[in-house]
Amino acid sequence: MHVMAYGPAEFVEQELPSADAIGPFLDKWPVLWLNVDGLGDVEAIRKFGEMFGIHPLALEDVINVHQRPKVEPYDKYLFIVMQMLLAGEMLDTEQLSLFLGGNFVLTFQEQPGGDCFAQIRDRIRKNHGRIRAAGPDYLTYSLLDAVVDNYFPVLERYGERLEDVEQEVVTKPRRETLARIHDIKRDLLTLRRAVWPMREALNSLLREDNPFIIRDTRTYLRDCYDHSVRIIDILEMDRETAFGLLETYLSSVSNRMNEVIKVLTIITTIFMPLTFIAGIYGMNFNHMPELNWPWGYPLVMGSMAVIAAGMLHYFHRKGWLG
Amino acid sequence: MHVMAYGPAEFVEQELPSADAIGPFLDKWPVLWLNVDGLGDVEAIRKFGEMFGIHPLALEDVINVHQRPKVEPYDKYLFIVMQMLLAGEMLDTEQLSLFLGGNFVLTFQEQPGGDCFAQIRDRIRKNHGRIRAAGPDYLTYSLLDAVVDNYFPVLERYGERLEDVEQEVVTKPRRETLARIHDIKRDLLTLRRAVWPMREALNSLLREDNPFIIRDTRTYLRDCYDHSVRIIDILEMDRETAFGLLETYLSSVSNRMNEVIKVLTIITTIFMPLTFIAGIYGMNFNHMPELNWPWGYPLVMGSMAVIAAGMLHYFHRKGWLG
Amino acid sequence: MHVMAYGPAEFVEQELPSADAIGPFLDKWPVLWLNVDGLGDVEAIRKFGEMFGIHPLALEDVINVHQRPKVEPYDKYLFIVMQMLLAGEMLDTEQLSLFLGGNFVLTFQEQPGGDCFAQIRDRIRKNHGRIRAAGPDYLTYSLLDAVVDNYFPVLERYGERLEDVEQEVVTKPRRETLARIHDIKRDLLTLRRAVWPMREALNSLLREDNPFIIRDTRTYLRDCYDHSVRIIDILEMDRETAFGLLETYLSSVSNRMNEVIKVLTIITTIFMPLTFIAGIYGMNFNHMPELNWPWGYPLVMGSMAVIAAGMLHYFHRKGWLG
Amino acid sequence: MHVMAYGPAEFVEQELPSADAIGPFLDKWPVLWLNVDGLGDVEAIRKFGEMFGIHPLALEDVINVHQRPKVEPYDKYLFIVMQMLLAGEMLDTEQLSLFLGGNFVLTFQEQPGGDCFAQIRDRIRKNHGRIRAAGPDYLTYSLLDAVVDNYFPVLERYGERLEDVEQEVVTKPRRETLARIHDIKRDLLTLRRAVWPMREALNSLLREDNPFIIRDTRTYLRDCYDHSVRIIDILEMDRETAFGLLETYLSSVSNRMNEVIKVLTIITTIFMPLTFIAGIYGMNFNHMPELNWPWGYPLVMGSMAVIAAGMLHYFHRKGWLG
Amino acid sequence: MHVMAYGPAEFVEQELPSADAIGPFLDKWPVLWLNVDGLGDVEAIRKFGEMFGIHPLALEDVINVHQRPKVEPYDKYLFIVMQMLLAGEMLDTEQLSLFLGGNFVLTFQEQPGGDCFAQIRDRIRKNHGRIRAAGPDYLTYSLLDAVVDNYFPVLERYGERLEDVEQEVVTKPRRETLARIHDIKRDLLTLRRAVWPMREALNSLLREDNPFIIRDTRTYLRDCYDHSVRIIDILEMDRETAFGLLETYLSSVSNRMNEVIKVLTIITTIFMPLTFIAGIYGMNFNHMPELNWPWGYPLVMGSMAVIAAGMLHYFHRKGWLG
User: Fold this and answer.
1) Are the C-beta atoms of E98 and E143 separated by less than 8 Å?
2) What pLDDT sits at residue E38?
3) In 3-state terms, what secondary structure has residue D283?
4) Alpha-carbon torsion angle A296, A299, A301, A304, nearest 10
5) Residue C299 at interface with chain D, using a CB cutoff of 8 Å
6) Residues C197, C70 contacting (CB under 8 angstroms)
7) Residue E272 is nearest to which of D254, D267, D288, comparing CB atoms?
8) Touching partners of D (3+ C-beta pairs < 8 Å)
9) DSSP state of B86
10) Chain A partners within 8 Å of E246 (Cβ)
11) N or C end of chain A, less CB within 10 A?
């Protein structure tokens, strides 16, 4: 539990030992930002809910994570839910629940530990930019913007992964390649399901004439909304690429089968007639004049060579030999 | 036929011996909940319909089950149809028809036996939460919420089933695997067809300014609506997974064919030339000098071994041997 | 040409010998229902059009069948077009054109012979239900309801047909199976093209505040609309099933090819090495010591048996033998 | 350049030698129809544009053909663009640009030569129907209706072509069949791209309350709009059929491969074991007692026949023999 | 940095040495067009932003390229983003950021070097057309029109590329063909993602009643909007073609496999029985009367020829021989 309270001139930052310690800050500052990192202490969350007048259902949504990104207007505050991406090998999301009131911003993060707000805290501390001069809506915008922009590096990672798989599909497609493509496709779908409602939510912030966001901040939010649209564009592009890789993989499996069958056919087509000829002169008829010719054996061997060369020439002309 | 009548202070519960026994309860209680379990006694249903002033068409929809989830506003009541999921191996749904009036809630369940309302009855009996203090709209919300939340465990079961099938597809795909995938796909589609209109219906409860649902309850219903949207999300995700499994299955069939054909080609390619050589020295020409060489036989056997080794080396380099 | 004229108390029914014979009925009865069965007598249709004040374009739509289901409001009447299903093996539709005026209902059926209105005529004759007491809008509802409900048995037939084909696909897929699946798919598409605009048309009857349909009847039409939505649901489900059958068919063709190739591979893999060994000892070298061993022949035969058994064991372990 | 000027009573028709010759007709007649056939004489088109007060951009759209069908309202006229179908083997369209003013209709056709308006000219000349009595909006409707109805014979031709290809796919699918299916699919897509905006344009004529089309004519245009919807329906149906043909073609290619592989497998499976047996008795061991049996040869031949018969029986039971 | 300032009568053109040099032009001319080519000098861009009163967020969008095409209304100007196509082998886009104010047009191009505005500059210089007489909105239209029309030659290039690939697929499909098709598909998708929002943006310029675009110019923009719709049409058509090529490619791979397997089957089917017969007469039984017949050898050779001819006849009748 971390509190930052600030106005254009003053600024206080404090770790809260308990929920009650928030008392002295209430309604004393132009902007009060209370950030709760991790949802372990349900009792404290309930207490905050009471103190800030949060509806029990909204609190439930804070605690039962896996909500879809959304914006819900209440009388005294806006309730915003977003999914933050966590750094790491696996795709992992964390729910951010944000309450924007007249003079406070409450944020609840699903898991304790690293978030993407360090820069914002710095800007508040050092009074960089317009954040200290602006209201809680601008802080909300900054937080949402950080959440949205955090999607881009993840998308880049997936772009690189797709290029890796593409390389693999073209050079030596293996059975695991298919699984990798499907994994990427599923992750992209998960991302898409997180981003679409996020875009919707940001759009509803733009549209609605709610009293918590002033016109000036809305211009900034429009920028944030644009980013979410771009994320969706990249996602769709990536999904299309993944789909194309799948097709290429399947077609390359088909191509390799073709190649194998060609080898089979070439070998069979060359050796079957030769073996047949050898078989003929292996017959035990008493009256086979060729067997007694002095040049019989070399003649047969010669015609076999001619037949084999003819076959090879035929396959070469058909383009089957490589 | 089960009656629960309650207000903030009082509470009565009774099994009805006949439809007429409802008489004394009418218009005497803040909230009257009549639950009819099973649609066998059509006569009683008609009587209830008359007593509560239900339109004959709505009653018909109660009796002719397999209606789509919907909300129909009438002058004196709301008519709500939902599909409840039944526990069990197979996917099975049961129609819940609900009438919400000014001071009553009528529910008709398709089949007698277990429903998912036990907890709600308990809360009424023990006066837990705000249910006794609230009106029939809050009871309606509680019932709908129970119906919606009952979808989640079923979805979880399908999630597990999909994981099972995925295991099967990867390790040893069989012919029945395809049927299982299609079964799951069809069930998910059935669920989807139940949930989409349910979402629509819940949304219409939110939007419309009907006199039966007060503003406070609408906040709760919004939560219920959110759940229905999450169910749809999970369903779509599962369908995507099922689709991916189908593709993996088909590609694994293709892969196995590839493998079989490789074995065929390797065997043919190795033994055809060898058999041909053996055939040559099985010919009965009188003038075949090699046949008289003392080292002819070992030489031929040696070259055969060399050829076989060469072929194996070639296949090994091509990656066909494993 | 059949006339039914009725009010709450009176009722007259008559076959018209000619178009002019309708004269005495005009504007004399609360509800006048004129049904023209078959569009052969274009002259009579034109006469009716004049007498009831129908726009020439609407009359043209009556005669040029294959119109999409639609509702067109005119000043003095509503023009409704529906597609009725005909009983029979093949999917066949017949256009029903209906004009709903202030005190009359005109219906034109494409083909003479059986329709699905027998029950409605009976209800008028015997004064069952509320039909005699209600106006022409209720009669219109009854007719539309009969048309819509007539789709359900046809859908059931297609459901059964799909089950038949499913059986066929699983047990012994043949070439005709594919054609049958495509036939069903096309029929379902045709049905869909008939039902979607029908749903639209019914919806427009619900929405629009036209003077020809009173509020009470609209409640009934909502029921009829619900049925049309259910028909669409069933159709979509059936199409999905047909699509799944197609996939299963294609995959089963693939599976059978796999099986055939396995047989080929097993036979080749067992007999090629054996034939090669036999070929070796068929060579005519003078110096082949094995040929003179007394146990040479049994030894070779024994090792051949061992090789064959080894191959079979290998295929068994790979699961190729059944 | 062809002028028809008419009112209920009078009628004049003239070929214009030059653009200026239109002068005497201007604002003298209830309806003036100037038809320019072919866009070669750009100068004349510009002059007409000036005389009728056409916006330069609209004139540019007249000259730069390949516009999408559209309706653009200007202050003094409506600008309508349609795509007319040309008769002929190949699918070919021609742009019709139409200006509807208070007392004139201007039409520009892309190519000189046959159009589908002969019947309309006849009706004007012979004063058939209501065309002479009506205003320029009715003439516009007649022209649009002629354009729309001209799509039906083309669609019929494609329907027949699809049937031809279907026959071909079922009886003897060849490589060109695939190309033919794709050609038809592409043509249908081209048609679809022409008809969809046409439908939109006609719909906008219906909806908008423009002063150029009186209410009565709008009823006629609704009919024309219905036709465009039907064209779209037929197109969708045809595309679905083409798609089904593609699937049938691919599956029949697969089936034929299956057949070829079956022949291969049957031959191999029968002759490999027999050849092996022959190989055994071709071995040159000194101690092979069977070789000296008098019945050795017939016995071996008999067992070979038994083996072959057994194999055939097996394949017959498996249904591989036809 | 290039400045063109003009009115109906006067005209000045100048390369700016530094950002400050714009000062004398401000608010002195009916239309001031400042074009910044390349985004290297961020400081200058910021200065321009200040001087023209541009919002910092809009400036950020100018610098951070890869924005989606969009139109954003601000109080004192419109902010328009487009993607220009660059000439060259590869598909490459460059962001054009345009600010339209009451008496100025600011354009920022991503990369220095060639743009598609040469003709517009010429028209200004030589006072061709209405550009000098019109306001900055007409200049904006001219610029957007140039950007949009620049898509057509690129689309034509893709059309030609598709025809090339089609030729390749039909005559000699290679492995790279698949990659080429996918490359084209991806490029078309990229184009589509650039054009769709462009269409949206142009449409919003048409719709909104903003004070920066007068009614007359809107007519011109409608034309520009039409072009963007046509581009989308062509793109969709091309994507459909690319999709069809993919299918044709896959089916041709399948066809070639068929051909290979046919060769294999024909060879096997002809030579297996012959080899078997030769094997029979290679057996060493003592009692094989045929071996001693004088005509034994020719008889066997004759029957072999008959069998081979029969097989060939069978394959010929089946149409396998070419």
Assistant:
1) yes
2) 83
3) coil
4) -130
5) no
6) yes
7) D267
8) C, E
9) P
10) 247
11) C
pLDDT digits (tens, 9 = 90+) for E276-307: 999 988 888 888 888 888 888 889 899 999 99
Average pLDDT over residues E73-83: 90
**Can you tell me the distance from the alpha carbon of A87 to that of A90, in angstroms, rounded to the nearest whole number?**
8
Phi-psi region of A297 (alpha: psi -120 to 50; beta: other; left: phi over 0): alpha
Q: Does A271 touch chain B (CB under 8 A)?
A: yes
Q: What are the average pLDDT values for consecutive 10-residue runs of chain D, which has 322 residues?
A: 88 86 84 89 88 89 87 89 83 90 91 81 87 90 92 89 87 80 87 89 82 86 90 88 84 83 90 90 86 88 93 89 74
The token pair at A89 is 């090998």
At B128-183, the pLDDT tens digits run 888 888 889 999 999 999 999 989 988 988 989 998 998 888 777 777 888 888 88
Please give, rounded to a whole number of angstroms, the shortest distance from the CA of A15 to a CA of chain B: 32
Closest by CA position to E39, among listed E107, E120, E118, E117: E107
Mean local confidence (pLDDT), C253-281: 88
Residue with tokens 């509702």: C71
pLDDT for position C293: 87
What is the Rg, in whole angstroms, of the alpha carbon atoms belonging to chain C?
35
| CA end-to-end span of chain E | 68
Quickly list H helices, chain B: 42-52, 56-63, 118-125, 136-149, 151-171, 175-207, 215-280, 296-318
* C167 CB-near residues (< 8 Å, 6+ apart): none
- pLDDT attached to residue C208: 67
Q: How far is C71 from chain B (nearest CA, A)?
A: 23
Task: Report which of E45, E78, E82 is spatially closest to residue E60, judged by C-alpha positions.
Answer: E45
Whether C292 contacts chain B with CB within 8 A: no
Q: What is the DSSP letter of E114?
A: -
- Residue B32 has phi, psi (to 5 degrees) of -120, 120
Chain C touched by D261 (CB under 8 Å): yes
CA distance E316 to chain D (A): 14
User: What's the whole-number average pLDDT of chain C?
Assistant: 87
- Contact indicator for C68, C197 with CB cutoff of 8 Å: yes
CA distance C279 to chain D (A): 6
d(CA A253, CA B258): 8
Q: For residue C2, which of C83, C113, C92 has the smallest C-alpha distance?
A: C113
pLDDT > 90? residue C74: no
Closest-CA distance of chain B to residue C119, Å: 19
Put simply, the chain D residues between 31 and 60 with a CB less than 8 A from any chain C CB are none
Shortest Cα distance, chain B CAs vs residue C162, angstroms: 14
Say whether residue B138 is in contact with chain A using an 8 A CB cutoff: no
Picking from C172, C274, C286, C293 by the largest number of D CB atoms within 10 A of its own CB, the best residue to mutate is C274
Whether E272 and D275 have beta carbons less than 8 Å apart is answered as yes
Do the strands A77-85 and C31-37 form a parallel or antiparallel pair, or are they unpaired?
Answer: unpaired
Tell if the CB–CB gap between A226 and E250 is shorter than 8 Å: no
- Looking at this predicted complex, what is its ipTM? 0.72
**Using only C-alpha atoms, what is the Rg of chain B?**
35
Task: Supply angle C-alpha B22, B26, B32, rounded to 5.
Answer: 85
Chain D residues near residue C253 by CB distance under 8 angstroms? 251, 254-255, 258
With an 8 Å Cβ cutoff, is D9 touching chain E? no
H or E, element range at D262: helix D215-280
**Cα radius of gyration (chain E):** 35
Q: CA-nearest residue of chain A to B283?
A: A282
Amino acid making up residue E276: F
Structure-token pair, residue C271: 């007999």
C253 touches chain B (CB under 8 A): no
Residue length of chain B = 322
Nearest to B261 among A61, A261, A283 (CB): A261
Which positions in chain B touch A272 (Cβ < 8 Å)?
272
